[in-house]
Amino acid sequence: RRGFAAALLDVGGRELALRADLAGRSALHYAAWVGDACVVDALLHAGADPGALDSWSRSAAHVAAARGQVQLARDLAVRCPLSAGQRDAFGHRVADILSLTSGSRVAVQERRGISWKELFHDFVALSRPVLVRGGCALLPAMSSWAEPARLAAKLGGASLSAGPVPYGPGCSAVTLPAFLASAEAPSRGPRPYAFDVSAARRCPELLADSELMPCSEWAGFAAYVRQPQFGLGFRGAGAPMHLHHAALNALFVGSKRWLLLPPEVSFWAANASEAWASSARCAELRAQGALLEIRQHAGDLLFVPEGWGHATVLEEYAVGVGQEFVPLSSLSS
């Protein structure tokens, strides 16, 4: 990769190494974000400035640290200690970020009563997962979705996508009453999970009940916010290991177990979540200390950072929503 990058830089010259996008991010920022030390080295050799700051006052070292690229962040900080010692727009120096993110590889942090600003500055901007106990306990969905019959009435005749693996083979459209009835029938296979991104769009009342964050707050921190995904199932159902943009996950009924993997070891799994959670691979990751596990109860809000692998296993009948977004601090924005 270094040779390929060097060949491109031979054509584009130092101007290419120094060029920045509208957010002030250079190629060095992006190489640091993905942890590509070979490309970082080629860019520095071509004259890239390790002290250049983006619109969030972040150098490439800040970016690498926020993504958990520890050694790369340290190497870049040595090349430009002045910018590494500067606080970014979220109030963090490179050393601060490395200290905070190192703990995120050991356990999911738990908090109570934090503000949206604290959530975005101390967790979203640093790609740190956090479980906010009681973080969605005041939303209307806590009471209006508690009874399956009331929830079915809100959905009306709207169908949901359900199957053993969300959006995978074997999924079919089913109404909530039919899904609830099927759960009572004996089954030898994986439990089906209803996971649908269009339910909130087709049923505005669901969206009103479960609005995780006011639009005014999103506007200050997110470049893109996706429609919430509605999830419902019984004990043993869930989503297999997967990864995507950053997401807030609210649980309104029941409890579920989360299994998280940091970006450097995350992957996609195609088998049902309960089967994967009891697999040899899962046990191996747990033994290595790479797998983080936490239990979410009704009323809790979980933030999963961009690129973090995650799987869920429901411990009982559970209902919640997940909402993906792209933070302005992310280089994906």
From TrEMBL:
<dbReference type="InterPro" id="IPR003347">
    <property type="entry name" value="JmjC_dom"/>
</dbReference>
<dbReference type="Pfam" id="PF00023">
    <property type="entry name" value="Ank"/>
</dbReference>
<dbReference type="InterPro" id="IPR041667">
    <property type="entry name" value="Cupin_8"/>
</dbReference>
<protein>
    <recommendedName>
        <fullName>JmjC domain-containing protein</fullName>
    </recommendedName>
</protein>
<dbReference type="InterPro" id="IPR050910">
    <property type="entry name" value="JMJD6_ArgDemeth/LysHydrox"/>
</dbReference>
<dbReference type="Pfam" id="PF13621">
    <property type="entry name" value="Cupin_8"/>
</dbReference>
<feature type="repeat" description="ANK">
    <location>
        <begin position="23"/>
        <end position="55"/>
    </location>
</feature>
<keyword id="KW-0040">ANK repeat</keyword>
<feature type="domain" description="JmjC">
    <location>
        <begin position="192"/>
        <end position="333"/>
    </location>
</feature>
<dbReference type="InterPro" id="IPR036770">
    <property type="entry name" value="Ankyrin_rpt-contain_sf"/>
</dbReference>
<dbReference type="InterPro" id="IPR002110">
    <property type="entry name" value="Ankyrin_rpt"/>
</dbReference>
